[in-house]
Design a protein that fits this description.
Helix content: 25-40%
Radius of gyration: 14 Å
Largest sheet: 3 strands, antiparallel
Low-confidence stretches: none
Structural class: alpha+beta
Number of helices: 2
Mean pLDDT: 93
Length: about 70
């Protein structure tokens, strides 16, 4: 499965930037993109591991539950 890099705007719009077969290549590109962002830019750059772009977007837009603290 490939690694997808997405730019996520504050209004939750997604823009697929690139796809990589290896994690190392994806993380290097994501770091490069994050470093190139300006100080006022509000979009975030994320990597997602998924079978296809549709699944990647579904995973990125699905809210995650907050972890329960103190329940060790």
């Amino acid at each position: 499965m490939p690694y997808f890099i997405y730019r996520i705007e504050t209004d939750k719009t997604l823009e697929q930037l690139e796809t990589f077969p290896k994690y190392r290549d994806a993380i290097e590109k994501a770091r490069e993109l994050r470093a190139a962002q300006t100080a006022g830019e509000t979009a975030t750059v994320k990597i997602i591991f998924a079978q296809n772009p549709t699944e990647a977007e579904r995973l990125l837009l699905t809210p995650r539950e907050a972890p329960v603290e103190g329940d060790d």
